């Protein structure tokens, strides 16, 4: 007798072949459903390859299935073969799988989600080419493992074209294969489209950036499809709130420490050139690309916060206006009325980029978080990629890609120190 879940394919199949019972394996691990016949072969239905497939692994008869076991579809008879299998959950997530070359077996290659309802559609072909189809639905059980939370950043809003996306995990993920599972589920969409990838900063933090800066006036959305997916025996994906941000104009400020000039470009056109001073010997401004982190109308700057002893010849305690922060360690672009005589001529600061008050206010009003501030021709070291702000753009694209768990070449960039992108000259 035909199983209730079997759908008859187009055509009657081979008239010359009859079968006495249909085997449908749906218990976990092994086992079969019962079969029956009235003993008269003339009462059996014509052969259909769709009747000769079994489901195993995740599929469990009459109760929720174990999501930790893979889904298997097997052709039970050599006279028919599987031609296609699609499996997806109620939210539209497809299960990746692999079909044997001879069509005898298909098995899932990506994890199933917990507490999810799946629909599996199997297409078959008989020895004479007659098509068949079978549809099965099953539900996976609830996980007993911890859920991995993901928080995306920055907060919703409009940013400059240098703003990386961030993903903060609430539990560490160290294994490369487990990282790959997490990373595949973190989806980034940009309009216009860009080429970009995630980079693992550490066991709990990822950054995403394109190969080049984001396009101006782009819409960028990041979301997670990790919910319910097994990461390891103790950890499954949890919920994550999606994030949408936009970019504004392409604003890039380049400070040349050798010529003591800061040039601001908007959408690739120069809009202002400002005389500045940068870090003096022993306090050189970092070279490389930085990203605006915040803007502070007034900030108190004290030398003790950067390791300069109070009362020493280099100590200071100043109230500073129009301060645009580019590192967490205290590097700013700001008003420096005390050094106007040196601006455009000499480098006399303790590492910040200083300019007169009117120019500092203009700069403060022109840039936004995520805009790019680059320093060239300084004797200082290059801005570190992580840990002191967003130095992400100081890694060249090859080494940025190597920080992805999905990178195909694991040797360069992973086993050696990250190579910094050379700055302009």
From TrEMBL:
Coiled coil (UniProt feature): none
Entry superkingdom: Bacteria
InterPro entries according to UniProt: Big_10, LD-transpeptidase, LD_TPept_cat_dom, Transpep_catalytic_dom
Positions of the catalytic residues: 334, 352
Keyword Mitochondrion attached: no
L,D-TPase catalytic domain span: 251-376
Annotated keywords: Acyltransferase, Cell shape, Cell wall biogenesis/degradation, Peptidoglycan synthesis, Transferase
Pathway: Cell wall biogenesis; peptidoglycan biosynthesis
CDD domains in alphabetical order: YkuD_like
PANTHER family linked to this entry: L,D-TRANSPEPTIDASE (PTHR30582), L,D-TRANSPEPTIDASE YCIB-RELATED (PTHR30582:SF2)
Protein name as it appears in the record: Ig-like domain-containing protein
């Amino acid at each position: 007798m035909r199983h209730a879940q079997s759908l008859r394919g187009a055509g009657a199949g081979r008239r010359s072949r009859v079968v006495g019972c249909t085997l449908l394996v749906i218990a976990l691990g092994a086992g079969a459903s019962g079969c029956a016949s009235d003993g008269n072969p003339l009462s059996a239905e014509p052969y259909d390859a769709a009747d000769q497939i079994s489901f195993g692994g995740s599929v469990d008869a009459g109760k929720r299935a174990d999501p930790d076991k893979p889904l298997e579809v097997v052709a039970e008879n050599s006279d028919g073969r599987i031609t296609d299998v699609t499996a997806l959950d109620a939210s539209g997530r497809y299960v990746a799988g692999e079909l044997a070359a001879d069509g005898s077996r298909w098995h899932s290659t990506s994890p199933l989600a917990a507490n999810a309802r799946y629909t599996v559609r199997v297409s078959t072909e008989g020895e004479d080419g007659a098509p068949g189809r079978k549809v099965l639905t099953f539900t996976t059980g609830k996980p007993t493992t911890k859920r991995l939370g993901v928080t995306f950043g920055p907060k919703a809003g409009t940013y400059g074209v240098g703003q990386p996306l961030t993903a903060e995990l609430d539990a560490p993920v160290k294994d490369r294969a487990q990282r790959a599972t997490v990373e595949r589920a973190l989806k980034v969409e940009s309009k216009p489209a860009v080429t970009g990838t995630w980079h693992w900063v550490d066991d709990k933090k990822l950054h995403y950036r394109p190969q080049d800066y984001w396009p101006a006036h782009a819409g960028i959305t990041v979301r997670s499809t990790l919910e319910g997916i097994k990461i390891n025996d103790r950890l499954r994906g949890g919920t994550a709130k999606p994030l949408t941000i936009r970019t504004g104009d392409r604003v890039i400020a380049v400070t040349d420490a050798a010529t003591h000039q800061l040039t601001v470009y908007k959408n690739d056109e120069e809009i202002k050139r400002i005389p500045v001073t940068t870090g003096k010997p022993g306090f050189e401004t970092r070279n490389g690309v930085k990203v605006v982190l915040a803007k502070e109308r007034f900030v108190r700057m004290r030398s003790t916060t950067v390791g300069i002893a109070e009362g020493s010849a280099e100590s200071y305690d100043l109230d500073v206006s129009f301060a645009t922060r580019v590192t967490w360690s205290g590097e700013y672009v700001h008003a420096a009325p005390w050094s106007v005589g040196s601006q455009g001529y000499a480098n006399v600061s303790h590492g910040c980029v200083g300019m007169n008050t009117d120019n500092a206010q203009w700069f403060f009003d022109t840039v936004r978080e995520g805009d790019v501030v680059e320093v060239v021709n300084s004797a200082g070291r290059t801005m570190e990629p992580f840990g002191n702000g967003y130095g992400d753009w100081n890694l060249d694209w090859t080494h940025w890609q190597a920080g992805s768990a999905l990178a195909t070449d694991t040797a360069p960039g992973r086993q050696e120190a990250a190579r910094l992108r050379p700055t302009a000259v």
